[in-house]
Specification:
BirA Bifunctional Protein, domain 2, homodimer, 43% helix, 16 strands, 462 residues, Rossmann fold, eight-stranded mixed sheet, alpha+beta, 2 domains, globular
Chain lengths: 462, 462
């Protein structure tokens, strides 16, 4: 029989990986709670009509679609089959699809529950999403997104609050030197307005998105190809360079954007945010204005964020987000400005791993194991285990009286810090022998002292 | 535009529901850890060949299948399409399927990672599974299973340990009076051997499975229909009745099963388990032997469990499990006896809800909200919020200076226990006014005292 394998782009997680992943998730979750967010969860799949048509043709291709249950051919068209009209046919034989992100299901949730939620509605959502993308380093077909959103208020206090939230998450992960980049979509709209290329907005966004990876000379070539004039390209690059030092170049930027209403608005929003952070400086991360930041997601309309790891780490963005004014409109609910951010767990994991910042004591939660010397001690081992457990000590017994060497081997391989010996001598004396697997030190202790020792050691480790 | 709706049998969870669900999950997870289990996770979908052919034709029908990405028709057969040969065609156009349970993926995991795990391998897995079942009370198409398994040892100490684990989970949930029913599949095999109806084993299992819901007269009719003789049916019912009081009827049962090797073996296993629990009585749940317990899952080969809620609660089993000797054999790895149990979160939730045992203080984790009286205070509110957060207090500010009434309304609707007033007076004095939303009592406190008060109140609530 062939050894079983996993679907492309998916992973099993063992305990050691999960304890480390959960450490990161817990930091994010705790911070969301600190900032007044409460959790919601939505189903893994949605009705096809909820997801399809929301992510552009590229996104649509990446959505996993679920075959109808029962007679999946009942609405299928023979012509579609014969002509290999995949789009038409697939819409007839599938009726559900796996979540592609958490944002569209969130919008669906808000609209569907609009009478039960109170505005502004703050929620976090930590769940898997699925994309049929080509797998590569840090990119999988099933991955966890950690999102927080506030919907129903356009107060800029929230933009500031989310930057504080980024600061706290990365500080709590002991990850310093991250670069929180911000921009405002309004400024990009204004640039197209000022230089009379409104029709080329998406092309500009598209090129700016590549600025991190592609040389400026090539971006210039691409923009020329897209019929941007040389002088306009120079002006755009000039604006981007000015934005790097906002406090110094505030006036120059004000003048550039003064002819555009939306541009002035966008700039004054940035100014409001910077005025807070010039008084209350970030100590762990850096806050950088960058008019070159575009974030190619359609629904952003205001301030946008992107967090990059410290400069020497060559991994893409580890968090992002922005304000969107019309997200719930796709489901018929207008005028709900929202702002949201998302942490990418896999990327953060890679960064922490590369910087050796993942706590490595988290391999097992088991504190001790009772070795098994004879079937005669079965009930005693169970009873001692239960005694320890009722004292909040995680422990197990070895289930079979095999060779001590193999039992110690098991304890070692599983990184269990203490083994406990219980044989004839111990049964008679009522005391137990405990061995510290790291130091090799052995002690003979009464059950009470054993419990005290294990409790202390577990507290020291946490 | 039509209001969006959810796929059949799926649910959104709001914060209040999630905090209660997580309370149950945390008890189960903590207990798994206490008993020395560590977590693993597997992908939500598996390759089609991993899942198909493992659950019988009924189960196969209920598996959600995922359409191939890209040209899903590339291997499809026109004849299959024209003849509506659904099984053939679906195997050509799909290549993945959503997890139907956690057991088959676990077996796949063990076989695939056999060189990295140490035997006995103890794991827990708390993840969603999906079944295209007809939805009804407590039955959904996406639901959470909480499984723990040990594989690689046939020691009966584990059967006892799992019963202790059931006892601890339900005690920690303050749910007393649950009935842990146990039986041994070996005894059912022996019955068919003794009464010479080995060919009718599955039919017997099938009928016994209905004993909880169907009258004995009807079971008798069904068994007669399946060609069981009247005298055999009488004997089987007699054995089942004897099993109800194991300690009293031990000798009678021993005699009945004495002619069957597998029967004697099965009975002595039960005797071993009862001998432990007659010395170490359960105090929270009841342990009942019931030879009528069958659990219609194919892979069980030894002791089986089923936990029912207290007698007055009309909800089916809330947990179950059993020993299986050949599970990993489906992926080519022989001789790995295992035993596992599973908790059904939705059913446990319903039972606790019906008995009013769900903690109801868990509606929000936000402790306090700063009311917003003017844009002039924006930065102060953000700073005070961050001060509280750095003292481990979950809080938020209202983002817009709308009417106090509407802001208080928001606090009320979200069950936030404290609101904090910060206006001109407070800004001048440096003290803040805090209002307890339950008692209505207001106090004016320095920031230090405010923090102390909120810290104390959050500790009292937990």
């Amino acid at each position: 029989m062939k050894k079983p394998i996993l679907p492309k782009g998916t992973r099993d997680f063992n305990s050691s990986e999960l304890y480390k992943r959960n450490y990161i998730i817990d930091v994010i979750k705790d911070t969301f709670s600190k900032f007044g967010f409460n959790p919601i969860e939505t189903p893994s799949f949605e009705r096809a009509e909820t997801l399809l048509g929301k992510y552009g043709s590229e996104g649509e291709r990446l959505i996993f679609k679920i075959l109808k249950s029962g007679n999946f051919l009942k609405d299928a068209d023979t012509t579609d089959f014969n002509n290999k009209n995949l789009t038409n046919l697939s819409r007839k034989i599938i009726d559900k699809a796996l979540r592609y992100d958490l944002t569209v299901p969130f919008a669906r949730y808000v609209v569907q529950n609009q009478n039960d939620i109170s505005i502004p509605f703050k929620r976090y959502q930590i769940q898997n999403v699925w994309r049929a993308d080509r797998p590569q380093k840090g990119r999988f077909r099933e991955f966890l997104q950690c999102d927080a959103d506030v919907i129903g208020s356009n107060s800029l206090m929230q933009e500031i609050d989310f930057i504080c939230l980024f600061e706290k998450v990365f500080a709590d992960l002991n990850l310093s030197g991250c670069r929180i980049k911000i921009n405002n979509r309004k400024l990009l709209v204004a640039i197209c307005e000022i230089y009379n290329c409104q029709d080329k907005f998406l092309s500009l966004i598209n090129q700016l998105d590549k600025m991190d990876k592609v040389d400026r000379i090539d971006i210039r070539k691409n923009l020329l190809n897209d019929n941007f004039e040389t002088s306009v390209i120079d002006s755009i690059f000039n604006i981007i360079d000015l934005s790097v030092d906002f406090n110094k170049n505030k006036d120059a930027l004000s003048e550039i954007f003064s002819s555009s209403k939306i541009g002035s608005e966008g700039l004054s929003e940035i100014e409001f945010i910077f005025s807070y952070f010039s008084e209350n400086k970030l100590t762990n991360s850096k806050l950088d204005f960058d008019i070159g930041l575009a974030r190619g997601i359609d629904y952003y309309t205001g301030v946008i964020f992107e967090v990059l790891p410290p400069e020497n780490i060559l991994i893409g963005s580890i968090a992002g987000g922005g304000r969107y004014d019309n997200l719930t409109e796709i489901f018929g609910l207008k005028n709900m400005s929202g702002i949201g951010i998302s942490f990418g767990l896999d990327r953060i994991y890679l960064v922490l791993q590369e910087m050796d910042l993942l706590p490595n004591y988290l391999d097992t939660s088991t504190q001790a194991i009772f070795l098994n010397f004879s079937k005669d001690f079965s009930f005693d081992l169970i009873n001692f285990s239960n005694l320890l457990r009722s004292n909040n000590i995680n422990c197990e017994f070895f289930p079979d009286p095999i060779s001590v060497k193999r039992q110690l081997n098991y304890a070692n391989k599983n990184n269990i810090p203490y083994v406990i010996f219980y044989g004839d001598e111990e049964k008679e004396s009522g005391s137990l022998k405990i061995k510290d697997m790291k130091t090799g030190i052995q002690q003979i202790l009464t059950p009470e002292k054993l419990i005290k020792k294990l409790k202390n050691s577990s507290e020291n480790e946490i």
